[in-house]
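lol so apparently i was supposed to do this last week
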Amino acid sequence: MDENCIFCKIIRGDFNTEFVYENEHLVVFNDINPKAPVHMLVVPRLHVPSLNELDDKELLGELMLGVKEAAKRAGLKSYRTQINTGKEAGQEVFHLHIHVLGK
Ligand code: 5GP
Ligand code: ZN
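anyway here it is w/ guanosine-5'-monophosphate bound
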């Protein structure tokens, strides 16, 4: 838990954000500024600033399974995923997240 992190606060329930899916490793919620008809964020419960700081193979695998589960629950068979890593690549929230975009 990072007190200055917006996603940690969402995970803690500070804003009553609805989770599309959650399990012991991660939560999935809709992006506040969607760039596609369906735009979800798959977010580990653990505060990790970016992909560069995560080497735990089990959690990395759980995140990819979370992508598939979120897509399934949103009724998506076809979708894109994106991970922005670092400011210059467009990362704005420094708590690792995977974008899942579909129609
Ligand atoms: P990044 O550019 O870091 O990969 O993506 C951050 C994403 O988080 C953006 O698409 C932005 O719209 C989303 N976002 C930022 N703040 C919030 C928030 O408070 N709630 C939700 N649901 N999404 C947020
Ligand atoms: Zn965080």
